[in-house]
Amino acid sequence: MKLIDGKKISTQIKEELSQEVLKLKQDFPNGPGLAVILVGDDPASQVYVRNKQRSCQQIGIRSIEHKLPAQTSEEDLLQLVKDLNNDKNVDGILVQLPLPKHIDEDKVIESIEPTKDVDGFHPTNVGKMMIGQETFLPCTPYGIQELLRYSNIETSGKHVVVVGRSNIVGKPIAMMMVQKGTTANATVTITHSRTADLTAECQRADILIAAIGMPKFIKGNMVKDGVVVIDVGINRIKDCSTKTGTRLVGDVDFEEVSQKASAITPVPGGVGPMTIAMLMVNTISSFKRRNNLK
After folding, report:
1. Residue 119: active-site member
2. pLDDT reading at 240 higher than 90
3. Which 8-state DSSP code applies to residue 223?
């Protein structure tokens, strides 16, 4: 069984990106700039934002932070996004989700200029992805594809089963895997909570992508021997043996499924680090497009 080490692969990608940024700064001293907006004090969001800022620092990308109180109005947030859209020194805009309940997430995402939507969530970019045009790919699905590519896992002609249908992971990874191209050309089945016989569908997978948001949901009896498993889930469960009394687990029961898998991602250290690495890739791509560089 091969462990697909997302931490190691993302480190390699970030090292390559830092060399690229060094070269870019020879002609463009300012270099790429990423604006991150955090509204409120959600603990998980704060951790994500901190990790993104750290990655920017490592690579040499300017990180422009906007930390707003939870009571910030939708109008004020939309105005900030508009200002960043018009700021020539900003190449990417990321609004950390979830937002407070009084703010319409869809409206905020749609207010981001598509050419600065490095999260790949704007309907324009989602549409381009759907029809196979060049665009910003959403970071987690993009990270999954890169994990498969760096691990030399063949996808062409393989049966990929996606468990979960979110707009952030499930739907986009299904669309990306079915496209013509490298690390794609797969036959894809999307499953979810209403799938009639979920176990039977999962057992057909050559590559199983679990993104259902339920701890240890995928059990050993749900997969066939030799399956490649990508576990997108990040769930915090109680564990009295740890200092904090909790630990992180995925959507896959690692102990059971790893006995049958030919390759599997761990949690943590699998898909998570790749999501941030792909955000950095998208930010640099935006900078190059905006400066008419190849």
Report:
1. yes
2. no
3. S
